[in-house]
Amino acid sequence: MTTTSEPTTVGRPKRLGHYSVEGGERQLVAQRIDGVVQLRDQAATDDGRSYVVEPELHSLSELEAIVADYLEIAKRLGEVPMRECWY
């Protein structure tokens, strides 16, 4: 039996916010993947690590609240909030 999978549909990434840390500029990017919006924290350049902040968002208000909170935490810490050991 042969199975075929549907091709993944990926929307255009949208930058929703940015902040700076010692290692450089970071950005929060939302992108729709197979109909689900995902939020990532990634380096503004291609040479840094990316973190999935939220893998599945369901509303614009949820997205906006998480972005606002995340940017505030990043500002307060002066570090990437998703890093394992920032303390």
Quick tags:
87 residues; 1 helix
With strands numbered from the N-terminus, the spatial order across the biggest sheet is 1-2-3-4
β-sheet strand percentage: 35-45%
Shape: globular
Number of distinct helices: 1
Q: Helix/strand/pairing class, anyone?
A: alpha+beta
The total tally of domains equals 1
Low-confidence spans: none
Biggest pleated sheet: 4 strands, antiparallel
Number of strands: 4
- Look at the structure and give the mean pLDDT: 90
Distance linking N and C termini = 53 Å
Calculate Rg over CA atoms.
Answer: 15 Å
Order of helices and strands: EEEEH
Approximately how much helix is present in the residues?
10-25%
Care to describe what's here?
The protein is an alpha+beta fold. The protein has one domain. 21% of the residues lie in helices and 39% in strands. The protein is built from one helix and four strands; from the N terminus they run ββββα. The chain has a four-stranded antiparallel β-sheet with strand order 1-2-3-4, with helices on one face. The longest helix has 18 residues. The protein is globular, with a radius of gyration of 15 Å. It starts with 13 loop residues before the first strand and ends in a 10-residue tail after the last helix. The model has no long low-confidence stretch (mean pLDDT 90).
